[in-house]
Amino acid sequence: MTGCVFNIQKFSIHDGPGIRTTVFLKGCPLRCLWCHNPEGLERSVEIEFEPTKCIGCGACVPVCPKGCQTLTEEGRGFDREKCVRCGRCADVCLPGSLKRVGREMTVEEVIKKVMADKIFYDTSGGGMTLSGGEPFAQPAFALTLLEAAKAEGLHTAVETSGFCTKETILLASPHVDLFLFDYKATGEELHRSLTGVRQQPILENLRALSEAGAEIILRCPIIPGANDTDEHFAAIAALLNALLGIVSADLEPYHPLGTGKAPKIGKTQAFSSSAPPKERMEQIRLSIQSKTEKPVRIS
Q1: Is pLDDT of 273 > 90?
Q2: For the chain, how big is the Rg over CA atoms in Å?
Q3: Which of 70, 88, 217, 291 could bridge to 63 as Cys pair (CB 3.0-4.6 Å)?
Q4: With the CA atoms of 192, 194, 195 and 199 taken in that order, what torsion angle do they form, in degrees rounded to the nearest 10?
Q5: 267/261 Cα distance (integer angstroms)
Q6: 119 — pLDDT class (breaks 50, 70, 90)
Q7: How far apart are alpha carbons 162 and 180 in whole angstroms?
């Protein structure tokens, strides 16, 4: 079995307890306007192109089977419409102007990389976190990875939008020590307009996980001009109070990482906002905290 992985990030400290290795899987059914990992949206390998790093050596031109890479007097060209994403151009690009985004890996290959840092997990209470994209967009691969990590005695966590089948998330639950579960917006219409998908299946999966005894941290992105409303903050507190499985909430202030990443893979991200000031984030935290006894933190 293989899956498409676009990053394996070592020494992560914000994706669960302790020092962790975060495995980012490609593919996501959501299209959040503010997505900060646009390179994780598609399931397949993509080619990143950063023109400012190109030194004009032309090594990529003869290896491209479709003639997508050009270097002429008019300048450097990359025809993405003809590109079959074979990655040969990236293989010969020494300055890193062209890069593969994603590679097919076996479960064994991923676990080998994760286990290389086991000493750090043992001393810090860390482990492996699956992220994305949406890790459950590759359900069989994600489940097998989690099973393999537990077989090695690792603490496991999953960052998820919750948008998957209930069967998938409940099959994973016995192999997951901590769910980092997104709560992006309140209300069916608003949720669909901001993320492209319905909210109801997500809420049903959240309740099902709680009833199954899962430990859940609610992750709440705060996006100025999109979801920073009193109604949304009250709904976060209500979920904390209603579901025993949710142990706390992390508020995540918006950052514009995606706007810089998207053009490199031939995408655009029209949404733009500004990061909420620290004072505003603390005001939001206090508003939610006043309505619940469970911890509310700012990430």
Answers
A1: no
A2: 21
A3: 88
A4: -40
A5: 9
A6: very high
A7: 10
